[in-house]
Design goal:
353 residues; alpha/beta; seven-stranded mixed β-sheet; 35% helix
Length: 353
């Protein structure tokens, strides 16, 4: 028996999540991973690398709880929000019995995580405006333990209707968790559902430091939920999910000074986003620029695959969304610096339609 044959069949057949770094490229304008465009500097204050770190570093948990308006017992920190996605499946889904559900087009890690653990995933495509099809979700809920809803949604950029969230939470009460993936919520903080956790014990919110906090390389995310949910997740999380340097920097980023700096970065990105949207709407090969509440925009272009390749060859790396349901002809563009935006604008203006 070969090594491959020793592996579980669903792992042998699994297509891993195609992250921006896995897809590669040799560009100098990286606008495909929704990162903040410039680096933020931190100095390490902890030098106790000879000791194992706390499982849930006190300063990180307390700072994030204060930032999110929750109790520390309602916060769990992990290796990015991606680990939070997996922990929920591990804690709540029996392989071969239970299922998760999500609504494409959306973030690709929900399906990959389910397949990795041998858990069925079901999909309910969104409506034409990328809002939830609540009736179709209701029809597929039997056996579902976790429903993932990304809001603002990646890659479409819009907020999910809050009233639809309420209907979904009532629909699943006592039957399944509803997970609001709020990776981009700092760009539209008014839309957060964290204030609903007391009302809905089946609501879970995922957060990250990768976007507005400009710390994608830190790999630090948060799961926000009732104390009961967090206690269960603590049973399945790794003993030392955050290294000492990660916890050190995360605590600094979540200080009052760090949060103010994050809000300044958000204001910068929102201004740059408006500039890019305005310029793109006057370009011949651009058919549609969709509204966005995030640090990226979705754009439908004429001959999008050829345009994507043309910009790639010029060192401008965007994210091709053609294979996502209902996103034919679409590319996703991260909001970068003004110089990076101008590179994109000039390159698209030079394209022959």
């Amino acid at each position: 028996m070969s090594i491959e044959e020793l592996a579980r069949k669903n792992v042998r057949d699994l297509t891993p999540y195609q992250s921006a770094r896995r897809l590669g490229g040799k560009g100098d304008v990286w606008l495909n991973a929704n990162e903040f465009p410039t680096a933020v500097s931190f100095d390490l204050s902890q030098q106790t690398l000879n000791r194992y770190p706390e499982c849930q570093p006190k300063a990180v948990i307390e700072n994030y709880a204060q930032y999110a308006g929750l109790k520390p017992e309602q916060v769990l920190v992990s290796r990015g929000a991606d680990e939070g996605i997996e922990l929920l499946i591990r804690a709540f889904c029996e392989p071969g019995k239970d299922a998760i559900l999500f609504c494409p087009p959306t973030y690709g890690m929900y399906s990959v995580s389910a397949e990795t653990f041998g858990v069925e995933y079901r999909t309910v495509p969104t409506l034409e405006n990328w809002q939830l099809d609540l009736q179709a979700i209701a029809d597929k809920l039997d056996g579902v333990k976790v429903v993932y809803v990304c809001s603002p949604n990646n890659p479409t950029g819009q907020i999910i209707n809050p009233q639809d969230f309420r209907v979904l939470l009532e629909m699943t009460r006592g039957k399944a968790l509803v997970v609001a993936d709020e990776a981009y919520i700092e760009f539209c903080p008014q839309a957060t559902l964290t204030g609903w956790i007391a009302e809905y014990p089946n609501l879970v919110v995922l957060r990250t430091l990768s976007k507005a906090f400009a710390l994608a390389g830190l790999r630090c995310g948060f799961t926000l939920a009732s104390e009961d949910v967090i206690a269960l997740l603590m049973k399945v999380i790794a003993p030392y999910p955050l290294s000492t340097p990660v916890a050190d920097i995360a605590a600094q980023a979540l200080s009052p000074l760090g949060i103010n700096a994050m809000r300044d970065r958000v204001a910068q990105i929102l201004e740059e986003r408006q500039y890019l949207i305005t310029q793109l709407r006057d370009i011949a090969c651009v058919e549609q620029v969709f509204d966005s509440e995030t640090n990226y925009i979705l754009v439908r272009l004429t001959a999008s695959s050829a345009v994507f390749k043309s910009l790639w060859d010029q060192g401008i790396i965007l994210r091709d969304q053609n294979k996502q349901p209902s996103l034919s002809g679409c590319l996703r563009i991260t909001i970068g610096t003004r110089d990076e935006s101008q590179r994109v604008i000039d390159a698209l203006r030079a394209e022959k339609v």
